[in-house]
Amino acid sequence: MAGTRLPYENVAALVRTGQVPYDQVERFYPGVTPDAVQDAVDFDRSVRSHLRAS
Fold first, then answer.
1. pTM of the model
2. Which tens digit of pLDDT belongs to each residue from 23-32?
3. Can you spell out the DSSP letters for the chain?
4. pLDDT at position 25, please?
5. What are the φ/ψ torsions at residue 7 (nearest 5 degrees)?
6. Which residues contact 14 (CB under 8 A, 6 or more apart)?
7. Of 48, 38, 27, nearest in space to 1 by CA
8. Cβ contacts of 53 within 8 Å, gap of 6 or more
9. What Rg do the C-alpha atoms of the chain give, in angstroms?
10. How far apart are CA 42 and CA 30, in angstroms?
11. Is residue 54 over pLDDT 80?
């Protein structure tokens, strides 16, 4: 996702809601690899955890 204007939240939401499996996100966002999806999901979890703790 580096170098794109795609917010991590968009990718993480697809996976978090169960709408799209990790390995199929690239069908909607070409160039976003499964590894990048995992990074987006991990970052999203971290942000959400931090916000809940605040």
1. 0.84
2. 999 998 898 9
3. -TTS---HHHHHHHHHTTSS-GGGHHHHSTT--HHHHHHHHHHHHHHHHHHHH-
4. 94
5. -70, 140
6. 20, 25, 28
7. 38
8. none
9. 11
10. 20
11. no
Residue tagged 């939401």 (tokens): 13
Residue whose C-alpha is closest to residue 43's, from 17, 19, 3, 7? 7
* Distance between CA atoms of residues 44 and 11, nearest Å: 9
Largest pairwise CA distance in the chain: 36
Q: Please tell me the number of Cα atoms within 13 Å of 36 on its side-chain side.
A: 18
The identity of residue 35, as a single letter, is D
